[in-house]
Amino acid sequence: MQKKPFVTKQQLEEMAKTYPTPFHLYDEKGIRENARKLKEAFAWNKGYKEYFAVKATPNPYILQILRECGCGTDCSSATELMMSDAVGFSGREIMFSSNDTPTEEFAMAGKLGAIINLDDITHIEYVEKALGAIPETISCRYNPGGVFKISNNIMDNPGDAKYGMTTEQITEAFKILKAKGAREFGIHAFLVSNTVTNEYYPMLAKVLFELAVRLKEETGVHIGFINLSGGVGIPYRPDQESNDIAVIGEGVRRVYEEVLVPAGMGDVAIYTELGRFMLAPYGCLVTRAIHEKHIYKEYIGVDACAVNLMRPAMYGAYHHITVMGKEDWPLDHRYDVVGSLCENNDKFAIDRMLPKIQKGDFLVIHDTGAHGFAMGYNYNGKLKSAELLLKEDGSVQQIRRAETARDYFATLDGCPMMKKFL
Ligand SMILES: *Cc1c(COP(=O)(O)O)cnc(C)c1O
Fold it and tell me: Which atom of ligand 1 lies at the shortest distance from residue 55's CA?
């Protein structure tokens, strides 16, 4: 399948007059349509709610759009809670799925009335101290251990993951929490990231639904919701087939009918905490070629670097690249597309077949709407880019300006040597 940018070259030329490259661009129309499809896929479940994983794209304008689409937020830090609160999410619209959590952050989540999802049995005491009492609604994160397989393929290794509680621990935790006054319980698990298969959610649902039935029988608690968390992925590569969220929703429904309904648990709400699926395809990093270099390999230097998009450097992740205006040219040049960091892993693409690139060409790096800008950092003193929103009416709104040197130096508060930059 050909990957097509959601923006045209002409639109980019127009934008670049006001906003210099590089910048991240988001597609409001795509975000809304996708959120609608997700909602439809789970419409069979009365209490269904998506809690968007804020860490994927922590921008209040994006959160506001998702709020209008009926989503809540999933947070795991103080600043994510603060942003959710500022955008207007409150109480049960916020899920606090953190780990290794500082007491103050539990306290903040408690104050906002967020649903707290405990990563560990020892956190019961922490929460009790931080909030003064155990909240009436509480969730626990589960880790089944072992390996997670889909049709004999090992998808991931939960036994090696730091998250969640063992089966014995979650059973014990439910008993303790019940004794301490909790009334409504939730179960959460996140076992595999970026799954590009319609089978992941239904398989995870089966694990969690069966656990829920057992926990209800053994501890007598009321299970109000089951949180399938994140992990539904997107096709970063053009040869991958995308997930069909309608098929995924239907798969979860089938397991629900098979496991929960016969156990008298047909009132359990399904929650999700998707990040990547909600945003990744609806954002791109727009950069320009500024250099070409011919040594032992052919290099194209662009004005973005790994601080704008860390995934290739960090995970060797593939991000598709479109050279704007050359969509129909032959892919007859083999390039490494690189940024300017003094790190040889600062490469957006290695040995990528692309059309001939000239200095000044716009390169659209696809699927950066989630875990893109958000993972940015300031290595080499590089500054983070702006974020722009392509609105449904075709207009463009800057939803975060680019960092300046002043921002970079700002935490040197009053340092006399830096005075002329502060
Ligand atoms: C990161 C994360 C998510 C979102 O994951 P995606 O892969 O972006 O869907 C959801 N829940 C928790 C607890 C997470 O840490």
Answer: 1
